[in-house]
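Take a careful look at the protein record below. Let me know whether the structure tokens fit the sequence:
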Amino acid sequence: MLDVRQQLEIIRRGAEQIVPEQELVAKLERSVRTGKPLIVKYGIDPTGIDVHLGHTVPLRKLRQFQELGHKAIIIIGNYTALVGDPSGRDQTRVRLTPESVETNARDYLKQISKIVAGLGPAGEVIDGARVEVHRNGDWFRRMSFLDVLDLCRRMTISRLLERDDFTKRLVAKSPIYLHECLYPLMQGQDSVEISADVELGGSEQLFSLMCGRELQRDHGQEPQIAITLPILVGLDGTRRMGKSLGNYIGVADEPNNMFGKLMSIPDTCMRMYFELLTDRPLDEVNRLLAADAHPRDAKVALAKDIVGQYYGSAVADTSLAEFEKRFREKLDPTDIPEFDVPREELKDGRIWVCRLIVLAGFASSNGEARRLVAQGGVNIGPDRHRNEDPKADISVCDGLILRVGSRRVAKVRLIPGATP
């Protein structure tokens, strides 16, 4: 086990707040002295199944604690997910069913097995690993109504209203439902149940993490340390990464697509991505991002680091070669996916360009396809003819190549039969 100074240097990297840091030092000193690992908690509510690089920021910090010799505990919030975390929300979350939450949880664990040590490819815990997975329904389903009342006595309304998200909703006269007020108490109770030493969360979750400290004190436990991590910005360089915003990189993205997306991020994002998503030493990061260095070299190093984490260095090298082929030499990828176009869609061998884009899966509606065409991002065929007329009809043949933007390429496969 590394000494306390060395551990702190690793833990501080990318952390936004460590509250309180002096207590973390004391816990680390005791751990080094006794050889007893810290219990480091990270809770997730499986409200969705697509894990993107923004989600990996706290997961990577959890992995760092594991590598320092500590124990990771993942709390699957199958009960808190039914409430919905109000952190950073200006409205009540959509209600989920227990069945959908469990399905999401299993898929989530499979995806994060690439990040957290000790999880097998199916998301199962490997024997002897420094990780445990618990569902908080295991303890909440045992609670009686009197237990719930006792939990509610630990929090005042005025304390709850200190939350920015609740205050904003009050001012806007948006409803705040009683069950939402239980969320921070439930998250805090999770910490009591596992006697957490450290809890990780996003910067907007500090209130709930501190609630855990208070509940642990009430139960005679040593309070946990709250470590918050920044919110990763997405491909647009301004808003938080998210699927709904279309600015995300999924951990399940195929490597060439992941590499291409990383090469498209604004230069201003690179330091954040290096610090939060890679283990590259900061002195090397500083050298790559120096004023006299070429930003493209830094971006290539970043993309290789991240793709290499999920697919290995050999695949990262292949992705770089494919990127060079497509973007420097202006060639199509080696393997072009196909999409079906029923012959009944054609009229005299032609099809509306927007309909073709929708059939390819590059747009979810004709309106979105029109915008893509109007933006000049659509080109077709071996001569790469750029189509900027959203009313145009396109002559279609088997094998016709459709390109939308710099990363999406697909090839027509004409099929008989009715329109899907």
Notes: The chain has three domains: 4-229, 253-328, 338-415.
